[in-house]
TrEMBL record:
<protein>
    <recommendedName>
        <fullName>Glycerol-3-phosphate dehydrogenase [NAD(P)+]</fullName>
        <ecNumber>1.1.1.94</ecNumber>
    </recommendedName>
</protein>
<dbReference type="GO" id="GO:0006650">
    <property type="term" value="P:glycerophospholipid metabolic process"/>
</dbReference>
<feature type="binding site">
    <location>
        <position position="123"/>
    </location>
    <ligand>
        <name>sn-glycerol 3-phosphate</name>
    </ligand>
</feature>
<dbReference type="InterPro" id="IPR036291">
    <property type="entry name" value="NAD(P)-bd_dom_sf"/>
</dbReference>
<dbReference type="InterPro" id="IPR011128">
    <property type="entry name" value="G3P_DH_NAD-dep_N"/>
</dbReference>
<keyword id="KW-0520">NAD</keyword>
<feature type="binding site">
    <location>
        <position position="241"/>
    </location>
    <ligand>
        <name>sn-glycerol 3-phosphate</name>
    </ligand>
</feature>
<comment type="function">
    <text>Catalyzes the reduction of the glycolytic intermediate dihydroxyacetone phosphate (DHAP) to sn-glycerol 3-phosphate (G3P), the key precursor for phospholipid synthesis.</text>
</comment>
<dbReference type="GO" id="GO:0005829">
    <property type="term" value="C:cytosol"/>
</dbReference>
<feature type="binding site">
    <location>
        <position position="10"/>
    </location>
    <ligand>
        <name>NADPH</name>
    </ligand>
</feature>
<dbReference type="GO" id="GO:0141153">
    <property type="term" value="F:glycerol-3-phosphate dehydrogenase (NADP+) activity"/>
</dbReference>
<feature type="binding site">
    <location>
        <position position="127"/>
    </location>
    <ligand>
        <name>NAD(+)</name>
    </ligand>
</feature>
<keyword id="KW-0560">Oxidoreductase</keyword>
<keyword id="KW-1208">Phospholipid metabolism</keyword>
<comment type="similarity">
    <text>Belongs to the NAD-dependent glycerol-3-phosphate dehydrogenase family.</text>
</comment>
<feature type="binding site">
    <location>
        <position position="29"/>
    </location>
    <ligand>
        <name>NADPH</name>
    </ligand>
</feature>
<dbReference type="GO" id="GO:0141152">
    <property type="term" value="F:glycerol-3-phosphate dehydrogenase (NAD+) activity"/>
</dbReference>
Length: 312
């Protein structure tokens, strides 16, 4: 049995996608009365999905638990419920770095649940696309035994999972692409144009690879679905919340604070990690400064463009 924790956009989309694979339970702390969610307009959960706000009931008999919560909510959630989750497959979907500790979601999960097998499900996949049954390819990464079995259990004819043992690389790619997607949004919002966006994507990708490999990721993982694939999707689509947030920063207009924008906190966490490791990440630093309101878009662009000239 598969249980999904978090009845937001992604948890709901996965519940729809997996509803044909066997019993699926979707847990949310506040459930809508109808089988519809404002986070995914137009999507109705199939009756086959059990919907509950009772965590103990949701976990009873669950062989695998997909955790579809925002990255910054995960540590607090695990502190409350880690013991109840332990001892089974725990599959993280959060794309972020914990601001307080600088740790990846899987590190937080393993610390709270030492007997669990931890995996990350990540890659280019808008919840709306998954919920509508559009063909999607994702990375399922874990260093735990039995990954192939999990890959089969979570794949469907339209949800194609590639497995990887580079958990660190897969998670870092997913987290860091959100930061660069914000920068791409800023470039468009500020009217700098598509050429500037292409430069941001490419130089941002170089930053992603630099930091992730320094933290133990394999470079080829960063070039895969979970890194470059998701970076391209989120930096070029107005469906991306990170891109839209960046665009509003570039335009100088307010953004709805109720929308989940993982890249804002993750930019700050990334800046700290990069400084500690001595890695140059000017674009991530710029996003951190913009998200904190400590620099203007014009100042940020000038800082980026007047850095000493260097080899590519
Ligand atoms: N929406 C998308 O297209 C995709 C999202 N993701 C990732 O999945 C993660 C979740 O994103 P979404 O579902 O889109 O966000 P969302 O904002 O739509 O939903 C988040 C859900 O988490 C719940 N939540 C927040 N804090 C909680 C807590 N402390 N305890 C229990 N529940 C809590 C909220 O009530 C909400 O239902 C993010 O890291 C995101 O990057 C990954 C792939 C695609
Ligand atoms: O990660 C995503 C698609 O792969 C979703 O991106 P946003 O969180 O920017 O909407």
């Amino acid at each position: 049995m598969t249980t999904i924790l978090g009845a937001g956009a992604f948890g709901t989309a996965l519940a729809v996608a997996l509803s044909g694979t066997g019993p699926v339970t979707l847990w949310g702390r506040r459930l809508p009365e109808a089988r519809e969610t404002t986070r995914l307009p137009g999507v109705t959960l199939p009756e086959a999905v059990r919907l509950t706000d009772d965590l103990a009931a949701a976990l009873t008999g669950a062989e695998r638990v997909i955790i579809a919560l925002p990255a910054q909510a995960l540590r607090g959630f695990l502190a409350l419920h880690g013991d109840d989750l332990d001892g089974r497959w725990l599959i993280n979907t959060a794309k972020g770095i914990d601001l307080e500790t600088g740790e990846s979601p899987s590190t937080l999960i393993l610390r709270a649940c030492p007997k669990a097998r931890v995996a990350a499900l990540t890659g280019p996949s808008f919840a709306a696309d998954i919920a509508r049954g559009q063909p999607t390819a994702l990375t399922l990464a874990s260093t735990a035994p039995g990954l192939e079995g999990l890959q089969h259990a979570l794949s469907t004819p339209v949800l194609r999972l590639y497995r990887s043992d580079d958990l660190r690389g897969a998670e870092l790619g997913g987290a860091l692409k959100n930061v660069i997607a914000i920068a791409a949004g800023v470039a468009i919002g500020a009217g700098y144009g598509d050429s500037a966006r292409a430069a941001v994507i490419t130089r941002g990708f170089a930053e992603m690879v630099r930091l992730a490999t320094r933290l133990g990721a394999r470079p080829e993982t960063l070039s895969g679905l979970s890194g470059l694939g998701d970076l391209v999707l989120t930096s070029t689509s107005a469906l991306s919340r990170n891109f839209r947030y960046g665009k509003s920063l570039g335009e100088g207009v307010p953004f709805d604070s109720g929308v989940t924008v993982e890249g804002a906190a993750t930019a700050r966490a990334t800046s700290v990690l990069a400084r500690d490791k001595g890695i140059a990440m000017p674009i991530a630093n710029a996003v951190a400064a913009l998200a904190q309101g400590s620099a203007s878009v014009a100042q940020t662009m000038e800082t980026l463009m007047t850095r000493p000239l260097k080899e590519e």
